[in-house]
Amino acid sequence: MSTVSNVLNNPTIVSTGTRRRVEDAMATVGYVRNGAARQLRGAPSMTAGCVLLDSANPFFSEVARGMEDRLAESGCMLVVCSTDVRADRETRYLNMLEELGVRGVLLAPVSSDLEAAVALDRRGTPVVLVDHPRGRARLCAVTVDNARGGELAAEHLLELGHRRIALLHAEVRVRSLVDRADGLRRGLVAAGLDVSAALVPVSLPPPAGLAEAEAAVARVLALAPRPTAIVCFNDMAAVGVMRGLRSAGVDIPGQMSVLGYDDLVFAGQLAPALTTIRQPTRELGRAGADLLLAEGLPGHRHREIRFTPELVTRQSTAAPPRGHSRRTR
Amino acid sequence: MSTVSNVLNNPTIVSTGTRRRVEDAMATVGYVRNGAARQLRGAPSMTAGCVLLDSANPFFSEVARGMEDRLAESGCMLVVCSTDVRADRETRYLNMLEELGVRGVLLAPVSSDLEAAVALDRRGTPVVLVDHPRGRARLCAVTVDNARGGELAAEHLLELGHRRIALLHAEVRVRSLVDRADGLRRGLVAAGLDVSAALVPVSLPPPAGLAEAEAAVARVLALAPRPTAIVCFNDMAAVGVMRGLRSAGVDIPGQMSVLGYDDLVFAGQLAPALTTIRQPTRELGRAGADLLLAEGLPGHRHREIRFTPELVTRQSTAAPPRGHSRRTR
DNA sequence: CTGTTAGCGCATTCAG
DNA sequence: CTGAATGCGCTAACAG
């Protein structure tokens, strides 16, 4: 028995002949290692978990693919869980993953309440935050500078001359979205604007997807004075907004500018091509998995990796219609 | 010990008082069930695996989300694996999932060689085919009628008057793509056309994504006589083709019609809005997971569930430019 | 190099 | 309802 075990886990110390015999025997019998038994015995798990807001959202599916690729290099597989931004689901999945004994969890949290995540980490299941800063929590994290992303949006629209901007926002508790909104406000303030007049928040009911964004367009158009630009929290919402504006007969960008976020693969191919904020998605996931796999290694220290977003200017934003603003340049 | 076990697995037979005491104790101690030990003891696994061509492709990520949702209802989680249409990766993932002891595997195979999958199923890990017919294999399957999808494409383009059609195809071994091509040919034959003249296959090198599709446009445009329509095997490829045509200054649909496949959420919002074949994605995944969970139940028999695709007519297809065909209507 | 043994955490069985 | 004992498949430690 121990020789067989050695062939599997310590091949070098077994003589070539014996090893061959064992391997042949395994092949003929159709032997398959029992992962559960190995794990029970203390072997590292061959799975890692990720708990994301929505794995069907192209942003997250791309992030997950990055994780998957990095994990595969270390012989691990990825368990994918979607919370739909519901705290109860997040809690449930974290518990299930802990029971499963995953090597660690990549968590895009539904809010900044990280108590459960920190406790999980303490109990021995490493947690890496995704798209959320470490803050005071003793965890690793991979993030994108969302405040900067918001600033980029503000700077771009201000430069075009917009002075009244609708901000579509979904779940205010999701940190990355809060940060973007903060950055956007900061950008307006830096330009000397009165935020309460310049920025109109428009809240989307859950699940805050494409359909909800489309429905919210009517509310934006009904505002007085009417905003001249709509900032969306992701490209999917922007697609919904574009659909809503089209059916309302509002020209983009002539009568209304639309700004997305994520730069999904198809963003440049929309009608009109979407101006948006690009973030490195696959890299984000890969970096997260990288941090996760490094946990537990000797000398490991918690780290935060931060990526930088980037404005991609296309055709969905332009100067506001005449009479709606003073042009700055 | 057995009382604790009963509280967890057989709560009804434990008196309320004792149950409470046990639950309180578990809470204060921070007890977490050990999934590996349970599984070793014979409990059903809390995971199912899926092996897809590319989890980052919106089609598959939507399918996976359907699987995830259905599994969650039964307290299970989904392990997601991407093969990138490589047989070696498929084999590797199937082995890993078997070791892991998943409840079953949802497999979108890279080819019609199902030997390994059938063997896996025989050894006790149920396999459900996704987007691939059962054929002679004794497995469950969820499929879409891909041949019909190809026919729909042919009928639509013929009706518009196209008589020379480029077919972008990626990996010919993927059954769903083969079936679509067959259906397309069948549609042309049914209209009395000479397939060898009417259909020009254009093969994309792996990974056959958006970029490869974009690059292939030049080859299509160089063909003599030049085709008047390009049929793509999915919407992502269609986006690439549209990008390529745009940069070549070819008008869609004036000079070239483009037909997609999948009807991804953004298809209607592209420039021009993409004519495509819709397939039920989330339902496909959900149905697959449903079959998987039913395996092993008493009286289970292998089944195949087949969905029907649907043509969604939008603006990327139109009659060919004058002089390129006889109009039929 | 090979055989033996113990124990990982759990569920189950059998006695009380 | 509770306590004790057993074995799932594997690995590590040790004795031959």
How would you characterize the overall build of this protein?
- The structure is a homodimer of 329-residue chains.
- Chain A has 329 residues and is an alpha/beta fold.
- Helices cover 43% and strands 15% of the residues of chain A.
- The longest helix of chain A has 16 residues, at 58-73.
- Chain A is elongated.
- The model of chain A has no long low-confidence stretch (mean pLDDT 94).
- The interface between A and B is large, with 52 and 52 residues.
- Strand 2 of chain A pairs antiparallel with strand 2 of chain B.
- Chain B binds a DNA duplex (16 and 16 nucleotides) through helix 1 and helix 3.
Task: Summarize the SSE layout with pairings.
The structure is a homodimer of 329-residue chains.
Chain A: H1 2-9, H2 16-29, H3 35-40, E1 47-52, H4 58-73, E2 77-82, H5 87-100, E3 105-107, H6 115-122, E4 127-130, E5 140-144, H7 146-160, E6 165-169, H8 175-190, H9 195-198, E7 199-203, H10 210-222, E8 229-231, H11 235-247, E9 257-259, E10 276-278, H12 281-294, E11 304-307, E12 310-312
Parallel strand pairs in A: 1-2, 1-3, 3-4, 4-5, 5-11, 6-7, 6-8, 8-9
Antiparallel strand pairs in A: 10-12
Helix pairs in contact in A: 4-12, 7-8, 10-11
Chain B binds a DNA duplex (16 and 16 nucleotides) through α1 and α3.
